[in-house]
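Residues determine shape. We examine one folded chain.
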Amino acid sequence: MKNIAAPASLSGAPLAELKSWLSITTNGEDDLLTTLVASALALCERFIGVVPLKSEVRETVLPSLLPQPLKAGPFISLTGAEAFEGLQRRELSSGEYRIDLGSDGMASFSLPELIGEPQIEVTYLAGLASEWQEIDEGLRQGVIRHAAHLYREREAAGAAPLPASIAALWRPWRRLRL
């Protein structure tokens, strides 16, 4: 199971860009707008299959001698690996695991020999860009446009589908897995 442990901060440049797009000059809705940017960024990640903005990811894997693909990418660096059983946890030393990086930027995790614990929590950094301004213009515009769309449609009944213009901005980055 994968979860974003430490998402990227969206209260600076992304919030300012969305407020500019919507012509909002007050700070009264900053929390709502930041939440909408986070939702749009999460949808972008699901659509393209990679993490757009650097985030810390935690993923639980089973001990295995075979490489297990990590779900988030592109992989930047490993920040920790803990073996655990129930509440008992221990940090794995660098010689107790192996990270293999694929040509597509994705990584896999394996063990050179089996350990006694039944699960391992792998913590790592993943993302296409470290800062908001480093994200490709099309991805960034799609996130801002989708957040603006969510803002404008917030009173509507039911969820509106992803606008085609946003999908068109994200489609060149989409990774499909068979």
